[in-house]
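[09:14] KT: can someone run the structure on this one? pasting the chain below
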Amino acid sequence: MSHAEPPPEPPQPELDADYADLAGVVSQSSTPRQIADHIMASIAVGALPEGTCLPPERRLADELEVSRSSVRAALATLERQGFVVRRRGRGGGTFIAHVEPARVEEYSARLAEFRQSRRDLLDARAIVQNRVAAVAARRREAADIARLRELADEYARAGSAAAARTADARFHHAMAQAARNPLLAEIAADLDGRINAGFRHDPFSERLFEQAAADHRGLVEAIAAGDPETAGELCETHFRTTTMGGQ
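[09:31] RB: done, structure tokens below
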């Protein structure tokens, strides 16, 4: 008995350069269930706290390289399960709902896998960023030091979690550029993209913010002094303390 060939997959939108490193996070074969699992697991580990507004459907679809209909279906599933609420009109969007811990634990098997994968990614990022900072300390130029000082100050002046995350990303991107190795910078960006997977959600608190601001200043001084060992150790400790709880 013959079977009709399935219709070809629709062409996927070309990613903006800013999001190109996210292409491997969710493949084109991803299902709405896989997308929903990722968001739900991010909620469970505290990476997406109550009240967080998720990016619009189109942006999530582009960044995760899936169809918009898959994202819409995933969000509909999460809404039915009570993990997100969707608001219409001005100031609307898709927001993380209040979720009781017992509800989250219903998904313990998937959460265990997610948590282990996330720990591995965070560990890899801390190690890679150690090397990025060390190489930057060896290869930096005067303009790099001036730029890093400016961005460290910009971070310290950030008035919100979103502004702080953006300033932090700019600081570490500039540090990677100071290393004068595009491949090393690409590896660091890829790891960061895999960890955040479509929506930047590193933990944030006043304590972590103050710690990160001090870390940035220390990193700039170590890089300016041409001290690769100190710069590397400071940077790795920075990432482990601010994103891994000191692991």
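[09:33] KT: thanks! Confidence is low (pLDDT under 50) at residues 1-30.
[09:34] RB: yep, looked fine to me
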